[in-house]
Amino acid sequence: MKLTASLLLTTVLLALVGCEKILEEKPESFFEEGNSFQTARDATSSINGVYNRLRGVYNMTIINLADVSGEELEVNPFNAEAREIDRNLFTSGLDVFDRFYTNSYVLIDRANRVIANVPKIAMDTKLRDQVVGEAKFVRALAYFNLVRAFGDVPLVTSPTADVVNVALSRTAATEVYQQIVQDLRDAEAVLPLRYTVASEIGRATSGAAKSILAKVYLTLKDYTNAAAKAKEVIDSKVYTLVPNYRDVFPPERKNGPEHIFSVQYSCLLASYGSPMAEAFAIVFTYPVQQAGGTYYPTPYHVNSYQPGDLRKDVNVVTQGVNPQTGAIIRPGADQGPGSNKYWDPLACGRQQARNNFMVIRYADVLLMYAEALNELSGPTADAYAAINSIRARARGGAAVTTGPQDLKGLTKEQFRDAVLQERSWELCFEGHRRWDLLRTGKYIETLTKAGVPVSEKNLLYPIPQNEIDVNPALKQNPGY
Amino acid sequence: MTFQRNREVRNFTEAQDFPNFSLGAANLGLGNRLLAPTGSISQWGLASYLGRVNYRLRDRYLFTLTGRIDGSSRFGANNKYGFFPSGAFAWRVSDEPFLRDNRVFSDVKFRLSYGITGNDGIGLYNSLSAYGTGRMVLNDQEQLFIEASRIANPDLRWEKTAQFDAGIDFSVWNNRIQFTADYYVKTTSDLLLSVELPATTGFTSVLRNVGSVENRGFELGINSTNINSGGFRWTTNGNVSFNQNKVTKLADGVSQFFVGSESEVVVRVGQPLGSFYGVQFDGIWQTAEDIKAAGALAVPGSLPGAPRYKDVNGDGVYNASSDRTVLGSGLPRYIFGITNNFSYKGFDVSVFLQGVQGNKIFNGTFRQIGGGDPGGGLLQDFYDNAWRTTRPSNQYVALRQWTIPVSDYWVEDGSFVRLKNVSVGYQLPIKTKFLKRARVYVSGQNLLTFTKYRGYDPEVNSDFNSNTLYGFDRFAYPASRTFTVGGNFTF
Questions:
Q1: A51 chain-B contacts, CB cut-off 8 A
Q2: For residue A111, which residues of chain B lie inside 8 Å, CB to CB?
Q3: Residue B388 pLDDT more than 70?
Q4: Whole-model pTM?
Q5: What is the DSSP string of A383-427?
């Protein structure tokens, strides 16, 4: 009897121990937070994930938010979503706001995870610091876009662990900007000047951090620091203007001497491709001739070019060539002109082409430098030199007598306007226009001049309604 | 005590573009295109400790007590176990001395029960974080990336349902008519739901224990032998259940949250679980003057023929987000079923009628093909009866590319009564040495449906694996009408 009882007890105890084990969940075919950051390979793989997230923020999303919203670009009415932005008809329910906001914050969380976890990895400290710097650079970029689009936005700088207390209110824009500046300063200190290994080209460099920092300072009207950062980029001698404007854009020339930071696309697989080529094409030819894109340079922009400006032939095209048949295609009755800025004759799928999306390039830095110097002390010799180098290329070389000539003898106000106009000719459809007009206080004036209905509330975009629905702590921007 | 463990190992390899197929698939390496192999291991366990006591007093007072502790691997580390007791009492009144000699009541029984049950019907590993890998490009070079794909929720625990039930069964005239009636209150707490997260968390949703839902209602059933004489027999079985569903509490003082890619459903305290949520359609703008006069009450850019919506909050401005309201629920007020059986000599007939009343359906099918977009597919009715300057109406919007938000333009009454099954059989009067029994029959399913619903089938639930998205018709395949002719032969 005693033996039976103790045997029974042993069995029960064994069963209890065994059952504790069968209730344990131990993933065997996916990683967890705890085992995702162990090696140097994990560090680079995790920052790759952050770069990959940029695809959801840039390309057509930023073109809709920053270019369609300006006076340079309009869309076919069939593109209903972009049309609402073009005509300022949107409400907070428009999906592009939600996509942009959500993708930006997912990216920020992934960057936060890199910043929090990679320093714990035992690995080469230089590479480790670089990876953290890259994450800070991308995080700053995301916040810079958010704060320019929405104003005050929630500031999250560490990985979310709590799924209960998730209602965050909006942080004052000034505080968000402080974080952006801090991140970019940290990044510029640890990022390399350039990458030489083929598989590393495309990562953030110190030049990229300085260039974005210059733009942040410019936006904050801190012209001393803006000019200083732009000058550091110029003096680094890493970047040059390519001699011909049209050579800035072909996909074969991506990551070239003028490209400071780009979102990377490829046709290695169709899913790695970018959608801009089709959006701006008069005739898109994958796999057979398709209808063209729905994004058209406005007549207002088309007519703004001076005769002899070589950029016009790249930025605005009124006929396309089918690369398979050689046939000349003109836009249909309901189509506008296209643009060759993102032309790719060897696309690999619908909305899938080889073009990178240029986040910032050297011409932008030169124009920022001119803008900052002018605001500091009027059009100085250096300011003229910067803008005139852009204009010289635009007319085909310093000695050419047609096209945009060197500027001289302008007042401060005239120079300011000249830079803003030059940015339009040089950087149109690259995701800058709205921010340029907002920064210079010319958004409403310019759109009104171009005949686009616009009001005070349009200076900020509405916080996406889906986000307010799930986070009642968010207050909507005025007017929406 | 019971233990259960399940382990599943999967490996998947695929190759395409073989020179020919004469060898089968034994060597996938023969294919020209080899796809990336994938694999997974998943495992779950369940441990239960059970106990049960039955007690019978004088054969007419019956007591049952049960208790169980269940442990499930699916929950967070500190919340694996749940305790689920229950108790029941039954009183067989007809066995009491005062009723024993009664000629009317053949059986009378009262029942009372209360019990708690647990639900762990969720996916595996949901309390843990997950990181996934993928490939991306830098400078035309393919690279591996790793990225968080699920946020951990270590607090995940059992969903519990406490059910109180009071019922009576009785039959009269020697069991010729049997009644059963139940009143129940079912309270589900720690409801397991996938909840949308603000994007600032870096994730779009998480599985959480979010609140409580109450179901209360009546169930009535009757079995009756109406006629049984002269070889003719007619019996009727019927049942009807009334149910009221209400969200009683949400976690963390949240008063509502939204479900669905367009927030088309709201889960709100005081409302049924999963109510359609959107703006209210209020006819069609007839003239440009009307639109101009309405000012901010019209969607900017409206043209004659455009939909108009109600200014629900009455602030004088129509706003597609702040003028949303509850548009009804996909849950029915009551459902019923009636079966009549007739038999006479060798013939037998059975008729089954089914009904669902008081529910709404979100007609997502019409939303796709009835939106008025002349560029997409459009139903004939929406084309023929669309608003035109020559034929103004308030029924269907004009043929244009309107963006019609989630609204009651698409919400319809989903009530229906359906002749679910009719069958007629005949027992052949044959009896030989070999054939002992022979019956032939013909039956039809889904023969007639009485409904105002304009979609294909009111008996629809496209998101059948969601317990908040209820009553959506998204191109659901309708139930088919089936006729069967057959015979049963016993040798």
A1: 136, 138, 145
A2: none
A3: yes
A4: 0.85
A5: HHHHHHHHHHHHHTSTT--SSSPPP-S--HHHHHHHHHHHHHHHH
